[in-house]
Design a protein that fits this description.
By secondary structure, this protein is of the alpha/beta class. It contains five helices and five strands. A five-stranded mixed beta sheet has the order 2-1-3-4-5, sandwiched between helices. The longest helix has 12 residues. It binds zinc ion (ZN).
């Protein structure tokens, strides 16, 4: 038998039977993104890591850009916080990751891209994104290709794209 997955009780709990709805969690990720300190040289992204085997789906960790020290990305923050707070089972549940912007496939800083972190984390079945990565810093994001190659479902959540993009570029010049 697998051990139960501990979870942070202070996190927002899913409250209705609709809480397997991707829009519910993408909205939550968007609320995280709004906590970012605006940056002219980076995107402001929010992410939510969810246990997709629970009904309703259960939030395991939340994160936003630069929340933790070291120029951290939202997805990275989620993984770090979840690893810190939990005793990871040997075989993970079905993780679902929500991120307001397509996970990066290249970082100008040379740090490990989020798409590689997602693959290495293991057990992520689905990645929902709020919007595509604009080509502000990196010309072409290859996350779609990489995740598909690993059998990870990769889906854009309809309806929040423009708001996700607007929050992501908070602090960027208008031009
Ligand atoms: Zn990233």
């Amino acid at each position: 038998m697998q051990p139960d997955i501990p979870h942070e009780t202070s996190l927002p709990e899913a409250t209705s039977s609709d809480d397997t709805d991707p829009r519910f969690f993408m909205q939550m990720a968007l609320d995280e993104a709004k906590k970012c300190t605006p940056s002219q040289t980076a995107f402001s992204v929010g992410a939510v890591l969810v246990d997709g085997t629970a009904r309703p789906h259960k939030v395991l960790a939340t994160g936003f850009s630069r929340e933790l020290e070291g120029n951290t990305h939202a997805e990275e923050v989620c993984f770090t916080k979840w690893k810190k707070q939990s005793q990871l089972p040997e075989i993970g549940p079905e993780y679902i990751l929500y991120t307001t912007m397509e996970p990066c496939s290249e970082r100008l800083s040379g740090k490990k891209p989020c798409v590689d972190r997602i693959i290495e984390f293991g057990g992520v079945s689905t990645v929902y994104v709020g919007c595509k990565e604009p080509s502000t810093f990196v010309a072409e994001n290859t996350a779609t290709h990489k995740l598909a190659g690993e059998g990870i479902r990769y889906l854009l959540v309809d309806g929040l794209s423009s708001e996700c993009k607007s929050v992501a570029t908070n602090g960027h010049s208008d031009s």
